[in-house]
Fold:
Amino acid sequence: MSTAAFAVVAAAVALASCMQASIGFGMGMLAAPVVALIDPTLLPGTLIMSASVVTLLVLLRERESLDLRGTGWALVGRVPGTIAGALLLVWLPESGLSLLLALVVIGGVVLTGFGWNPAPVRRNLVTAGAASGLLGTATSIGGPPMALVFSGEENAAVRSNLSAFFLVGSMFSLAVLAVTGHVNVHTAVVSAWLVPAIVAGFLLSRWVNRLLDRGRLRTVSIAVSAVGAALLVGQQVWLAS
Structure:
């Protein structure tokens, strides 16, 4: 990878880290399309590693608002979802998988726009955790299902609960991806070089968080979910052209 290409990836990761630290998710949505165009071999491993760093930083910052019970039920669903995502990577063409998952996200956004607001109860948390595990492992974009379930909570609770879920879930995803050969030395080295960009994005989020009340956080979360799905579709169209 050239210096210019790495600079573009680092800038995308810094902005994505800021988004992740502000609304609780978004690393894969913002950075994945950019990384896919420059070096597709980095997906999803490098972005999952990068997301793990920023979620750890957010969790330490927002630890007082953490609800381990809700996060625990979501992780119950994450396990089978992660395994399913890894199997889909092996069995299905990447383009078809990405388009299918993007349509699922868009469907959830549309339902939310019509007033659907799933409460963070056990059934919804397990279901969202499974969907997030599948999406995150297969495409590195696993935020929307969990964000929709937690969107009605206080901002700090949203960020802390999502961060705890994604930190543990990412470790499991990386282990499964390593077994299937989708994590290697190249992805790990690039991830290490991106740490300064991740920290810069995290520090920038402190300023962004001051502008977000609960209503704005929910609106931004839904909008980012829609944009992320659209970018995923656009990425596949670009690669196919």
